Amino acid sequence: MATVNRAPDTRPYVPAAEAGEIRAPALVVKGRPASDGAGVKLYRVIGGQSLPDLDPFLMLDEFRSDKSADYIAGFPDHPHRGFETVTYMLAGRMRHGDNQGNTGLLRPGSVQWMTAGRGIVHSEMPEQENGLMWGFQLWVNLPAKDKMTAPRYQNLDADLVELLSTNDGGALVRLIAGDLDGHTGPGSTHTPITVAHATVAPGARLSLPWRADFNALAYVLSGSGTAGSEGAPITGGNLVVFGPGDSFTLVADDDATLELFLLGGQPIHEPVAHYGPFVMNTRAELQQAIDDFNAGRLGTIPANGLHPYRPRRH
Ligand code: CO
Predict the structure, then answer these.
(1) How far does residue 116's CA lie from ligand 1's centre (Å)?
(2) Cα–Cα 20 to 30 A to 5, which of 142, 146, 217, 282?
(3) Domains along the sequence of the chain with CATH
(4) Whose CA is closest to 115, among 190, 217, 13, 12?
């Protein structure tokens, strides 16, 4: 993506006055190579050695490869309990299916928002045999009161995101979920968070008001530039963790378009007990989740049973 095209329905975006404190980067980290599912190679940005977790975010993985061996095995049937997964595709196609009867095809620009709640068994499998597969999966924790909520699935196609642009047209923001300066994205969240994908044209600047009670993160998808009031240099693969304040600034270098995944959320401030695909508050609740899964109480997808008919799309 090299240029910023104003879509016809793009609304003018007027940043709030920068009256308060501008957030400075507190930390710039890089993800580490990891493997998950049936052997999908990925970069773990949050939830690994670089950054164990960042309340309310438990994990952020980037998968990006044009080698089918890196992704073809996908993520076959597996359970979750106690949190939400958010998957955002930039390239390629991935098919979701779960034991609640939900199916969805993730395509470039689409978002899948799955609330595991008390339990879900799902699979995420590539629907392509070659070519680039590029996307993200974010794990958002649920507070104790919502951990056993009913499972929910939202499939948000690319045309649903709220498109916003800066007044000078230098930056485009696709608001996926949460609130941003009076605008609201289509994703419905339990834990208050904001998720957006921003494109900043070469030399352009993006200043965004950001709730002071949210943390503020910017993951650089591609390009290079600077972040924050101190102009810290950033490049592809960097995660910027901003310090306190109520706005932040990102500037693209003159020769590169800066693509960013922006994230913020309200910390839950509860104990986290995490084992594989289950995230609860206590070890006893984790043991219960494992027992429930082993007893089939989270449900199973019958290997040889009948599934709802879903035509293949190419
Ligand atoms: Co999963």
Answers:
(1) 9
(2) 217
(3) 20-265 (2.60.120.10)
(4) 190
Q: How far is CA 251 from CA 70, 224, 237, in A?
A: 33, 9, 16
Q: Tokens 């084992």 identify what position?
A: 275
Q: Under 8 Å CB-to-CB from 167, ≥6 apart: which residues?
A: 12, 13, 14
Q: What's at 71, amino acid-wise?
A: Y
For residue 231, how far is its CA from the centre of ligand 1 (angstroms)?
37
Residue 124 Cα, ligand 1 centroid: separation in angstroms? 7
Q: Is the CB of residue 209 less than 8 Å from the CB of residue 195?
A: no
Distance from residue 237's CA to the centre of ligand 1 (Å): 23
Angle at the Cα of 152 from the Cα atoms of 73 and 220, rounded to 5 degrees:
60
CA 154 – ligand 1 centroid, Å: 14
- Compute, in angstroms, the gap from residue 208 CA to the centroid of ligand 1: 31
Q: How far is the CA of 120 from the centre of ligand 1 (A)?
A: 9
Ligand 1 centroid–CA 44 distance in Å is 15
- What is the residue-level pLDDT of the chain in tens, covering all 314 positions? 222 333 433 343 434 434 578 888 888 888 888 888 888 898 899 988 778 789 999 999 999 999 999 998 888 889 999 999 999 999 999 999 998 888 889 999 999 999 999 999 999 999 988 899 999 999 999 999 999 999 999 999 888 899 999 888 899 999 999 999 899 999 988 999 999 999 999 999 999 999 999 999 999 999 999 998 788 999 999 999 999 999 999 999 999 999 999 999 999 999 999 999 999 999 999 999 999 998 888 876 554 444 444 444 44
Q: Give the integer Cα–Cα distance in Å for 222 and 187.
A: 24
pTM for this prediction: 0.87
